[in-house]
Amino acid sequence: MEMYIVLAVAVFMMAMFVWHKVPFGLTTMTCCIILTLTGVIDVETAFSGFGNKIVVLVAPMLALGAVLGKTSMVGKIRGVMETMKGKRGYLMVLTLFFFTALLAQFIPSTAVMAIMVVFAAQIGDNGDITPTRVILPMLGVASCFKFRFPVSAGAANFATINALYEGIITDQAYHLTMLEPFIFCIIPMVMVGIFCIFGWKLMPKSEGSLNQDAVNAKTQESVMTPGQEKVVYIVFILAMVIMITNVGGMLYLAPAIAVALLIWTGILDAKEASKLMTSDTIWMMAGVLVVSDALGSSGASEAIGNLLLNAVGENPNSFMIMLLFAAVTVIMTNFLSNAATQTVIVPLAASLALAGGWDPRGLVLIAGIANMADVALPSGSGEAAVAFAAGGYNPAKVLRFTLPYMAVSILGYAISAQLLYPLYG
What we know:
This protein has about 425 residues and is an all-alpha fold. The protein is built from 21 helices and no strands.
């Protein structure tokens, strides 16, 4: 009976993620309460996710990333972009794409697109390169490179994905380490980057008209003194070094130390830090950890995995399974939010790998990272909405670019997963 209760709760959670009419955190906390009321778990276990080392790492990383985004670094990048006004050809395209990828490591992609459409508007409508021909490819770059390098929020990618399946697959040998998501992304980033550099020409010249309201949007300027910025950079770099080297086993504690230092030095307001570290992302993650543990301990995840295994057959081709999960993830994320796609597909991938006795890392990395390939529809994410609004695009008329982009993404993620983590490795 316990297994069926957990399965019902998991289905409810996934359905609510897809529906997305209430915050994700409310959904997962409701699931924890249901599991407690039905006697599947006790009260202490229901809220144990908040003390999980993954949440301890991710929560302060959100605050640390927000502080970094308030420095003059973004403004300096904008200054460099200003010097590119009037330049034509591939130099302009490469510059736009480079700074899109760079900014995407430090600030949310929605803000990145809001900033970059301003620069794209400076190109002008004359000639082969026009704003509406590069804004959507810029979205493609932002989506592929979004927090991919192990800095800022990207340093917590491994923990975020681990949180979604560590209760299903308890063997730590199959849990991700800090650098693995970045290494996994190298091949897709190269493939998608090259495609965007040349593929922008697939964008129709006449499609869309620049939305001046989006172009005229203001971006936040730094409110820090030069001394405060230096402290932020030093603290941030030290935190990243500690996380990468895991000095003293402080990988999971380094972001918290950094945030505490910024609060004590008066750079980060305590109330703001508290708000950032108790965002919906944290509530969702804490709840998902508990539900994931319940799936594993009740045998529900094994049942799900066996069902999926029966569907794909015994000893299926490893690369074809990678392609299947990559395709499902990329297609799904264009209709749903990135987070909803990730939280639905990762547990399914882990359950299938558990049932098949496979290495789960390739599948969970596909599900946990390919969920950012959201360029086909404005419903895919906030940054997609910004790009489509700014460019005035009709989704049907830009399929010449978006469909090949999705195909390249699917292939890139599948190849990377197969090379690094084959199912039968």
